[in-house]
Amino acid sequence: MSFLLKDEAYDKIIQMINDKKLIYGEIYSLNVLTATMDMSKTPVRDAIQKLVDEKRIDILPSRGIRLHQITKEEVMQHYHFSCAIEGYCVATLAKTYQKDKNNPSVKKLKKLMEQMEKMLDEQKNFNEYFAVDQQFHLELLESLKDPYFSSLKHSSMGFYNHPEIQFTDNKLSRKEVCECHRKILSAICEGDSADAYEALLEHSYVMLKAF
């Protein structure tokens, strides 16, 4: 039961991040957080520890918690990981698409782009938009049909599962992110592995600048 409660607490905190109820730079006490979530301290504390391990939350002794303040070194690690892993995936997918125009991953990416383009209004539900954003990137990993690369979606590296990145002072617009995706997909569909790779690098740099 406690395991299930920990998972519930984890999901609630993630939801609070997505809903911008937890903001960069703000410090939150465990007591206030548990009261807001209407849960006991133990599962919330366990969930927080998991988020600390994922480098999404920092614990400030005797003060409380806050969203993780990513260091310059960590940002560069995320950037290099994204460029290396996703860059390889898009370049490979472009070559694959040249041989098979019915590639299922490209079909999924096209559908995801259509969905994202309907969610560019900043007033529309962020969670739905971000889910599509993430699915686009996860499909790039899945396109290799390699269990190891597929498992990287759970990695703490890259820019996966970090919606708070889009809430920083250098806020990214949905249109800006969508345009990056459009360039990547366009290059893949043209079978141009070099352009696909460059488009992915450009997208990673856009994310890098947000910090």
From TrEMBL:
Keywords: DNA-binding, Transcription, Transcription regulation. Pfam families: FCD, GntR. Residues 77-206 form the GntR C-terminal domain. InterPro entries: GntR_C, Tscrpt_reg_HTH_GntR. Signal peptide: none annotated. PANTHER family: GLUCONATE OPERON TRANSCRIPTIONAL REPRESSOR (PTHR43537:SF24), TRANSCRIPTIONAL REGULATOR, GNTR FAMILY (PTHR43537). This is GntR family transcriptional regulator.
